[in-house]
Predict the 3D structure of the following.
Amino acid sequence: MIYCKECLEPNTRPGNSWESSDICTACEYYKSTKEIYWPDRYEILQDLVEKAKKNNKDSQYDCIVGVSGGKDSTRQALYIRDNLGLNPLLVCMSYPPSQVTDLGASNLSNLIRLGFDLEIIGPSPILWKKLIKESFFRFSNWAKATEMALFSAVPIIAINYDISLVIWGENPGLQIGDKGMIGKNGWDGNNMKSGNTLAGGDISWMEEMGISEKDLYFFRYPIEKEFEARDINIIYLGWFIGDWNFITNGRTSLSYGLSPRLGKATETGDASGVSSLDEDWVIFNQMIKYYKFGFGKTTEYVNEQIRNGSMTRDEAIKLVEKYDGKCADKYIDSFCKYINITREEFWNVVDQNVNKQLFTPTGKKGEYTPNFKVGHGLYG
C-alpha cells in the first residue's frame, strides 16, 4: 500500500495505476490546472453548446443531465441553465420508496422548486431488491446493480428522446483516477462504460440469475451503434470549470436550498455531510470499501481539501483516522431487514472480502485492526 506524497490517495483504488510515480493521477491533474487558460476551455464548451442547440432544435430540450439531487447535480443543473443558457431535461434513476430517504426526496424536490423539468425513472422494486441482494453476496457491493441502472438510464433516455448531448459532472478518469474512463480528451465521456463502476457494461451475471433481457432494459448500457445512430455525445462539465470541486459545489448547492445530512461523522464516515444524500446504505458501502481498499469517504473529501490548500496533509490524516470506515449499526440493520438477512450473515460476507493484508480481524465480529498508518502505508 503506497500513498500519494501530496494527498492521502492510496494506490489500492480500483482502476488506478500510478506506482511509477510518487504523485497520484488526481494530484497530477490538479497541478496541471494551474497552467490552464480557462477561457480557452470555455470556448470549447460554447462550441459544444451551440452544436447541441442546433442538433436539438426540434426538441423541447437541449441536453440530458443525470441528477440525484445532491451537491454536484444541483450545481451542474444550475450552471447548465443559468450560465450556458441550455434548457436541460433532468433525469433521475430513483431508489424505491423503501430505500430513498426523506432527505433524498427533499433535495430532489428542491430541483423542481428551482424550476427544472425532471423525469424520474423507477424500475420494479421487486427486481431492484433481488439485484441488490445478489450484488451484495456476489460482489460485497449492494450498489453494483443499481449503479448500472443509474448510469445507463441517462443515455437510454437521450437515445429514446433523440437528444444528442448528455452532460455529467466530474471526469472520474482525471479527477478521481479511474483511468479506464479516460476518453479522447478531458471532456469526452463516451468511454464511461469502460470504468470500474460499469465494468464495460457487463450484465451477464444478472442474466445468469434468470432475469430476462426485457426486464433488464434500464440496467443495460447502450452499445456504441446506438450512440452513433442518434449522434449522442457525452461530456464532463467539470473539465471546463476551474472551481468545480467538492467545496464550491457544496456551498453553491446549499445556497440554493440543498439540505445536508445531519448525522455525526462518527456514524456516517463522512466528514463533509453533503455526500450521497439520496439514501443511507452508501454509508456502510463506504465502510466495506474501506475494509477492501484502505480508504473511505473522508479520504476522498480531504484529498480535495489538500489539493486546494484549505487543509494540510497532517490535518487530513487526523480526520481520516477519526472517521474513515465508520458506520452506525442502524444503517446495517436497515439493510439487513430490507434483504432479509441476519447481521451475522452480513458480517460473514464482509469478512470474506476484507483485505487481510491491510486489516487483521480482532476476533470480534465486524472489528478489524488496520495494518497501516494513514499517509505512510503498511507497518514494517
